[in-house]
Design a protein that fits this description.
Blueprint: H1 6-26, H2 28-43, E1 49-50, H3 56-61, H4 66-69, E2 82-90, E3 100-106
Antiparallel strand pairs: 1-3, 2-3
């Protein structure tokens, strides 16, 4: 498979980022609630870490699921407060079939 020309890659990244912004904007209230929940959760852990699996129970407590969040899930940890640890862990959610998810640290 041939690599994409730099301009195609750049255009693809711009489209991806625009799509994430649009998805988050349509679910802004829910995204903000999840972010607040995760910040409290991480502050109460000695290592200050969290993953996408950590907010599933919170969504259930709201009578919602990950489907209600949709593509906006991609922006949950995209704030200056969070940093990727470089660690990947298998997801515990059955529907994710143990796929690798990022481990984030609250700064």
């Amino acid at each position: 498979m041939m690599p994409l020309p730099a301009m195609d890659l750049f255009a693809g990244e711009l489209a991806r980022d625009a799509g994430l912004v649009q998805a988050a904007a349509s679910r802004n209230e829910l995204v903000n609630k999840i972010r607040e929940y995760l910040m409290v959760l991480a502050r109460n852990r000695p290592n200050r870490i969290a993953t996408a699996d950590d907010y599933e129970s919170f969504l259930r407590s709201l009578g919602m699921s990950n489907k209600d969040l949709g593509n906006a899930a991609g922006v949950i940890f995209k704030t200056p407060e969070w940093e990727f640890t470089g660690v990947w862990t298998p997801s515990k959610r059955k529907t994710n079939n143990a796929r690798a998810i990022r481990v984030w640290r609250l700064k």
